[in-house]
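Researcher: Sequence recovery benchmark, item below. Answer with residues only.
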């Protein structure tokens, strides 16, 4: 299979010349309707000419990407300039020495590694990914970069410690959730270890979290409700990006965050950004 994990030395999977030319073109396209349409058409052409993963530099980091059945990897490979640029800038908008970032649903490391590249040598980046196949790609990508500040954790973050069923999207391997996929009730599933965000913070000996991103396909409320209830305020992130999937939440997470002192500071097509208000 062309998506099988390839652990050969980085640089062995450079793109064919024609795909490389297409990538240079798609990465130059502006963030306009016409620019995106052209980039996506060229991307479709290039994907038909690939037979395996591609080694690339994007967003200031080295990545081995498998763009066939993971939308995240496809976006980063061909159009990194469109990859959640507002969200990543928001998370980096209040950098400080020893910056602590938790990436819940890290996928192959796009957020975690690009933030590590900007946050400096004293940062701590915790990248959590439950899906075994995607976790292996994440771990490989972390190893190709010199930061030494990113730690990968193989588990699901949930509302309890133990084990749970993770539902997988066969058409988009980077998408998984502790809730059954809404468009695929027959989706694949696997059992994975689970822990709460409070437990993760305790095990990693975190005394604060400066910024956090949660991309867990509708389980954001299941994670944050017990965290805000049980965690000391010193652990509450100052900046928070969550998937904009309110229709899948069991409670009004936006209202909950506002009630806990956050303001909605960013809204994009896919995500919401919240900033914690200083306490008076």
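Model:
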């Amino acid at each position: 299979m062309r998506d099988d994990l390839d652990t050969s030395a980085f640089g062995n999977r450079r793109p064919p010349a024609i795909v490389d030319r297409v990538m240079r073109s798609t990465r130059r396209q502006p963030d306009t309707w016409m620019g995106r349409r052209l980039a996506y058409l060229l991307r479709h052409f290039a994907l038909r000419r690939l037979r395996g993963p591609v080694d690339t530099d994007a967003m200031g980091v080295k990545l081995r990407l498998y763009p066939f059945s993971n939308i995240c990897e496809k976006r980063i490979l061909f159009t990194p300039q469109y990859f959640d640029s507002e969200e990543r800038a928001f998370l980096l908008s209040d950098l400080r020495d020893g910056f602590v970032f938790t990436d819940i649903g890290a996928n192959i490391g796009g957020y975690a590694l690009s933030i590590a590249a900007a946050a400096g040598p004293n940062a701590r980046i915790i990248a959590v990914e439950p899906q075994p196949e995607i976790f292996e790609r994440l771990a490989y990508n972390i190893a190709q970069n010199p930061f030494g500040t990113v730690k990968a954790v193989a588990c699901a973050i949930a509302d309890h410690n133990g084990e749970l069923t993770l539902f997988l999207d066969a058409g988009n391997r980077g998408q998984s959730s502790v809730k059954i996929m809404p468009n695929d009730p027959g989706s694949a599933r696997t059992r994975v270890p689970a822990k709460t965000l409070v437990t993760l913070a305790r095990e990693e000996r975190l005394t604060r979290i400066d910024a956090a991103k949660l991309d867990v396909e509708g389980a954001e409320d299941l994670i944050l409700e017990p965290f805000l209830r049980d965690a000391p305020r010193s652990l509450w992130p100052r900046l928070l990006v969550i998937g904009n999937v309110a229709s899948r939440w069991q409670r009004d997470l936006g209202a909950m965050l506002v009630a806990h002192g956050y303001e909605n500071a960013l809204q994009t097509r896919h995500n919401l950004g919240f900033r914690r208000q200083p306490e008076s």
